[in-house]
What we know:
Elements: E1 8-11, H1 16-27, E2 32-36, E3 52-54, H2 60-70, E4 74-77, H3 84-89, H4 91-111, E5 116-120, H5 145-164, E6 167-172, E7 175-177, H6 192-201, E8 207-209, E9 221-222, E10 224-226, H7 227-242, E11 250-252, E12 259-260, H8 261-272, E13 279-281, E14 290-291, H9 296-302, H10 310-324
Parallel strand pairs: 1-2, 1-4, 2-3, 4-5, 5-6, 6-11, 7-10, 8-13, 9-14
Antiparallel strand pairs: 9-12
Helix pairs in contact: 1-7, 2-4, 4-5, 8-10
Amino acid sequence: MSTASSPWLVTGGAGYIGAHVVRALTAAGMPAVVLDDLSSGHAAFVPADVPFVRASVLDAAAVDAVLGEHAVAGVIHVAGFKYAGVSVERPLHTYEQNVTGMITLLEAMQRHGVQRCVFSSSAAVYGAVDVDLVTEETPKSPTSPYGESKLIGEWLLRDQEVAAGLRHTSLRYFNVVGSGDPAVRDTSPHNLFPLVFDALAEGRQPRINGTDYPTPDGTCVRDYIHVADLALAHVAAARRLEAGEPIEPAYNLGSGDGVSVRQIMDAVAEVTGIAVTPELAPRRPGDPPRIVASGALAARDLGWKMRHTLAEMVASAWEARRASGA
C-alpha cells in the first residue's frame, strides 16, 4: 500500500499534457513517475530527475513493475490515443489503446492496492452539443470512437469504484493550448495551433472553415484552455483524492465563454508579427457554431480558473515552438 509521500504515476507523462502534469506535480512537492511508450510523446519532455519507464499501459508486466517498484500513491492516467478524426478510421486501435489500456491499468492497480485515479477524459464525451453552456449534466452523445472510448473509460472507473472501492475523478476538456515550459510544446499534427504555426512557417495561410455561423464574428466559437492551468487541475484532483476529501466523478475544465477562430487568427498575427489573412472556406459538415463548457464545479472543488489570456496562450505556444527550432 502507498503513503501520502509516495509518487504519483503519470501515464503518458512524456506527452504534451502529461509532461505539464509532471512539472505541476513536482512543483507542488509531489513526486512523479512516468510511464509512456513514446508513440506520440518525447523522452526529452520528461525532467531528468523523474523516473521514466518506456512502456505501454497495455503491457501489464511493465505496469505491474512500475506500481510494485515505486509503491505509487495513485495514477494520473493521461496516456491514450487522442485523435478524434483519425479514430473514425481506426476504431479498433482507438478502443485497444483507450479501453483495453484502461482495463489493463485498473487490473494492475487492483493487484497492487492502488486506490486513486485521476483520468484525463475529454469533452468529446458530449458529442456535437446544441446548448450554450456544457455542464457535467449535459447528455453524453459522443460522435467518434475516441469520444466513445473516453466515456467507456469513465464507466470503467465508476464500476471499479463499486467493485473495489476505487476513488477517482475524470477531467473533461476541449482544446488545450499554450505552454508552461518552453521545453514542452504541442507536436500534434491535428491540433489548431500547430497547424496554424506550420502554415505560417511554410509561407501558407491558415484556413477558416465557415464564416457565416450565428456567432459575433461568424466563425465557430470553441473552448480553449492553457495547458498549465489544466495541469494544476490534475494536481488539485490528486491532492483531493490523497486527502480523502469528497470529489465528483467528473469535472468540466471550461472557460465559460470561449473564443472564435477569427479571434485566434488575430491573436496569432499580433503575437508573431506575421500577417495572417486566412483562407475562407465553407463550413465543414457537423461543426456546431459554439461549444463552450462551464468550469463552475471545478472552480468550487479544484481551484480551477482561467489564469491566461488568449494572447498569453498564443505567445507561450509560439515561444515553445521557436525554442524547439521548428
